[in-house]
Amino acid sequence: MAERSTAAVDVADNSGDEPPAAQAAKATADGVETQDTRQAADKPMPEPDGDRKAAATTAAPELHSGHKLARRYRLEECVTRLDGFSSWRAMDEKLRRAVGVHLLPADHPRARSVLAAARSSALLGDPRFVQVLDAVEENDLVYVVHEWLPDATELTAVLATGPMEPHEAYQLVTQVSQAMAAAHREGLAHLRLTPGAILRTSTGQYRIRGLAVNAALRGITSDSPQRTDTEGIGALLYAALTQRWPYETDAYGLSGLPKGVGLIAPDQVRAGVHRGLGELAMRALANDGATASRQEPAFTTPEELAKAVAAMPRIRPPEPTFTAPPEYQHTTYQQGSYGTPRPGAATTAMPVSPPPPLQSRTGRALKWGVAALLIAALGLGSWQLADTLIDHGGQGGSNTTQNQPPTTDNDDEAPPKKESVPLAVKNAQEYYPDGNPQNIDGVDHSYDGNPSTYWRTKAFNDGPDLTSYKGGVGLIFDLGSEQEVKSASIGLKFTGDHTEITLYAADSASSSTPLGKMKKIVTGTTSDGTMSLTAKDPVKTRYVVLWLTAAPYAPAYEYSQAGYKQAITDVKFSG
Questions:
Q1: Which residue windows does the record flag with biased composition (Basic and acidic residues) (predicted)?
Q2: Does residue 380 have a pLDDT over 90?
Q3: What is the pTM of this model?
Q4: Cα–Cα distances in angstroms (integers) from residue 203 to residues 211, 449, 453, 559, in the given order
Q5: What is the DSSP letter of 327?
Q6: Pairing of β 68-69 and β 519-526
Q7: What are phi and psi for residue 220, nearest 5 degrees?
Q8: 445 and 455 in contact (C-beta within 8 Å)?
Q9: Which residue in 96, 144, 137 sits closest to 118, CA to CA?
Q10: Could you identify which of 105, 225, 273, 305 might form a hypothetical disulfide with 299, taking C-beta atoms 3.0 to 4.6 angstroms apart as the criterion?
Q11: Structural domains of the chain ordered from first start
């Protein structure tokens, strides 16, 4: 089941040869073409009928399990067969890993657009998207090979268990909106952001599959791609908060909204919905002007939505709940009763008397030996004490005077060294004066006390010095109030030549404040997994900027490509 959940194309979109109005209604249920298809229910579909008919007459390649493509990709299971194309789970026999494959005939009317979309998506190289690995035309076939994530779960399956907690929904909209904003900056759109297109990995990260490719396979286009993707993100957030699909028809295992009432706010569908997230969902969805309660303007791009999410107060994860272990029960053996108690007998354990002292000849000899050793030890100690007193007396003066600590009237003597006091971090955010954040959703992991979680930078091609082209990357830590900052301990994920970090005292948590207007606290360089920084003099500040200007080279790790990079695992300050 886990592998099926990672299929590249979900199978709920089988429109066949239905009339345009029925296709539009089904597309609305599937959340595919959003407002364009809702309008199309009352008029002919914008997609030409000739393209649909040509796709229907072009049969999907008659392939079977075990067939090999390029003598490398062995087809194993057909996941989807629709509109003249098919999608498979396959095995890359060269690299011994599972992959996904889309297949369609070379003369399919959408073959050229699918190839173009796959190659454009592959150039993005953003680890937040399921990566396109190959796009080939050979032997009258066009096929697209992409990653297969066996440990990931579709958002469809996640929502089947119930609505998300506010923190989890916040993570979803943050990661998806930021990823789609990055894609649109490169000229790429998804146009089919449905629960089947979102995967949650075992580490809690969200991956988006089918960027540009899924829409090309189905011939989906949009005159306003940014608005279409923004509405798609809004629908995902709405479903995460309410476990309802924000349209009148049921889709993806979710019930739709009541017919005839239109789009209603999430907190009217389900009690206890986070108000801020509910308003973001309403502003992202096309709802004829019924936006948030404050009547703020609707979002038109994923970038606007991502910035609004980042400006929200951070939603903390729920506190973990611990179950007390069952009370320890003594066994009858531990209670001193070696037999099974008789029915009706009292179960209170009787006190066990200590064993009698040793009465044998060996026991008496052992007692006399121990006594002799104690007497000898006492005598030796008395002799050493007397010798010490005699030596001190020979030096003149009384013993009482010699044993007293010396006194002095010297006022210049250094006071005792003040012990360091841990300073708690109340909040944190990225510091990116160039407008390009690194990993906003991972900031909390930089100070959560868990060395297995981390905030990471992107991977850069040149290094270790980042200042020549990037200037640096950083974090701003909020101590809650002004504190005297003396030292810091910083856990690092990657070791090597070399990591350089500087701490600054800032007046605010804004990324618009340049480093030149901040006071430098301390700078350090290391090649190890921990950096300890101690300032010559404490600096009083509320906000501490951690500015990383050099990072070692590290191989690919989880969602980060190989390159010069660093990850901050655990930051602690002392005053």
A1: 35-54
A2: no
A3: 0.52
A4: 22, 17, 10, 11
A5: P
A6: unpaired
A7: -85, 130
A8: yes
A9: 144
A10: 305
A11: 422-574 (2.60.120.260)
